[in-house]
Amino acid sequence: MYQDLIRNELNEAAETLANFLQDEANIHAIQRAAVLLADSFKAGGKVLSCGNGGSHCDAMHLAEELTGRYRENRPGYPAIAISDVSHLSCVSNDFGYEYV
């Protein structure tokens, strides 16, 4: 019943990824980001990630992958998603959402 829908969605995702990979600028941008992160960690820096709505879930996932193990056992990297719900709701309630 849903097989055609599932197949179409997966084909669309594959096509989007293929198009992304064809643009060499995308590969270079990812490499620059990776080098920036690595250099920051080597210099004692950390990653603070944030987002709004579903993007915040991505921010939390990024921080989790950096602080935990990603594909192999390794020391965690310093990272945190800025997601203190009590602070966010306090500031938005007391001052306004534009201050969060």
Describe this structure in words.
InterPro entries: SIS_dom, SIS_dom_sf, SIS_GmhA/DiaA_subfam. It comes from Klebsiella variicola. This protein is mostly helical. The chain has two domains: 44 residues; 55 residues, no CATH class. It contains four helices and two strands; from the N terminus they run ααβαβα. A two-stranded parallel sheet has the order 1-2. Strand 1, helix 3 and strand 2 form a beta-alpha-beta unit. It is extended, with a radius of gyration of 18 Å. The model has no long low-confidence stretch (mean pLDDT 93).
Could you provide a short overview of the structure?
It is built from four helices and two strands.
Strand order, largest beta sheet: 1-2
Distance between the termini: 45 Å
Shape: extended
> Which percent range describes the beta-strand content?
5-15%
Mean pLDDT: 93
Main beta sheet, described? Answer: 2 strands, parallel
